[in-house]
Amino acid sequence: MSDTDSGSPAERFERRRARLTALAFRMLGASGEAEDAVQETWMRLSRIEIDGIRNLDGWLTTVLSRICLDALRTREMRREFPLGSVVPETIPAATAVGPEDRALLTEETERAVLVLLHRLHPAERVAFVLHDMFEVPFYEIAEILGRSPNAARLLASKARHRVVGDSDGLRPDTLREHRIVRAFLAAVRAGDITAVLELLAPDITVSADKVAAPGRVPVTASGARTVARLAAGFATRAEFAAVVLVDGRAGALVAARDEAPAVMAFTIEGEVIVRIEVIAEPEALAALSLTVPDPGR
Fold this sequence. Notes:
- The protein is an alpha+beta fold.
- The protein has helices at 9-14, 17-28, 31-46, 56-77, 99-103, 107-117, 122-133, 138-145, 149-163, 172-190, 193-198, 224-232, 235-238, 282-286, and strands at residues 200-208, 219-222, 241-246, 249-254, 262-269, 272-279, 290-291.
- A hairpin with a 7-residue loop joins β4 (249-254) and β5.
- α2 packs across α3 (31-46).
- It is elongated and about 70 Å long.
């Protein structure tokens, strides 16, 4: 008997709590709801004879996933948690065995993924999280969703297409733009104004809608030095910015802690940025096509 299968039911559950919390958080995107789902899973386990469960990990994953699925369906009916929802301060670490490490998501990229997961229908989200982030096989996902394995595979594929961009299909210009956006974000994070200026066109313009602007009034600024000074004030939030595709072009999604997300759409000519549009209004965000680059490439 392995260490994880010894001890009292409570002890065996506690050894699995971190993984279950990480799974529930990625399904629900809200730490309080994730903790409630994990606690409900424990309550259901405590009411049965644990020694009669042949595969405790599989049983817990199935029960927790169905609880999360019900919560997502209720949320969808109530039209809760749009793309403009805040991203929690702390993302529970996915410290369980192996599959999560395969994705090699940086924290800022995972924050972007969590934001984009709100665009998925409940079954799509559950299938994507279970398969792509926790490597649960499709026959188990099918049982959880009440679908066939092929249907579960199609749900995960559809979700992946909506969240993760196809790097193989990117135009050379888009790859170049990705490089420039990454360089811009790195320079801003480092506070390297000289490097920032080298990436800006002299007559660059920046606009921010009323939700993105500090004073809740749309703003526009122009000129490389003015924009560089504004960028210096953006350094802290830039720590939470991840490169994304915005309507097929390079951009960034900013998912700062305890704030509504914002998108930065870049217009790039040659090797310099000529325009940055900062978008945070939920209706405007919903109209954008957004995907993160494939982390496996």
